[in-house]
Amino acid sequence: MSLRGVSKGFSPAGGASVIQDVSLDIAPGEFVTILGPSGCGKTTLLRLINGLIPPDAGTVEIDGRAPSPGPSMSFVFQSFRLVPWLNAADNVGFGLALAGMERAQRQPVVRHWLERVGLAHAAASYPNQLSGGMKQRVALARALATDPDILLLDEPFASLDAQTREIMQLELLRLWEERKRLAVFVTHSVEEAILLADRIVVMGPAPRSIREIVPVDLPRPRRDDIRTDPRFLALRAQLTGTIRSLIADDPNSPFFRRA
Ligand SMILES: Nc1ncnc2c1ncn2[C@@H]1O[C@H](COP(=O)(O)OP(=O)(O)OP(=O)(O)O)[C@@H](O)[C@H]1O
């Protein structure tokens, strides 16, 4: 995947850029996290990557072509976005149904993914009967069921409580380390960014663009105890400092010169 000089503005006159001059290459099977303060354009970058919005300038290419949403690219959102009138199994099978797969063919795939996320027992439950963590497992299973080459995740664990969030991070790590898809994961959390990524792309405000790209040279497979590895702690201190200064240097931030 390749982004070259990508800019995007939303005003009709093409005024202030929401994203300015972003260039980035991501290799197949690579896990990249996008880290940055609120409002620095992280979600917009994901929407440009999945082809939901076109760039005003520059190019986004996947295998040499402009991106288009389809079964080879899955999206996971903070707000789960499950279909409320479908049970967990039908939610997991939703992308497969959209791709035209018959119910009988979908069933074993759905069963496999419900098992993989530990929800085989909840197949018949509806979203309003599931906890936040369970809903996010369903959303993850739905995203993986189509066997996408590209996984885009927009703060998927941000609305979960701290313990569930840590469990889900490890589950995602385990699933991804089994079959390494190109993953782009947006987060505000420095720890989450380090735990998951091969590389961390730090975005900043004013101008909203990439500030630095930090490789994460921690061994895989990674488990919970990686969080106490001295290299992890050093990276955490470095990135926390970077994010604090990005916020303190942003004249539009309420924490301008304070953080
Ligand atoms: N459709 C749109 N129309 C106008 N402005 C938009 C639109 N989408 C995003 N913006 C603006 O672009 C900026 C960046 O938004 P974006 O959601 O990409 O940032 P973000 O880094 O993901 O933020 P957060 O971390 O708070 O989710 C914000 O100022 C937002 O108001």
From TrEMBL:
Does Transport show up as a keyword for this record? yes
Query: Sorted alphabetically, which SUPFAM superfamilies does this protein's record hold?
Result: P-loop containing nucleoside triphosphate hydrolases
Q: Which residues form a coiled coil?
A: none
Which first-to-last residue range defines the signal peptide? none
Q: Which GO terms describe its molecular function?
A: ATP binding; ATP hydrolysis activity
Q: Which residue intervals define the domain ABC transporter in the entry?
A: 1-230
Q: Which UniProt keywords apply?
A: ATP-binding, Nucleotide-binding, Transport
Superkingdom of the source species: Bacteria
Q: Which family does it belong to?
A: Belongs to the ABC transporter superfamily.
UniProt-recorded name of the protein: ABC transporter ATP-binding protein
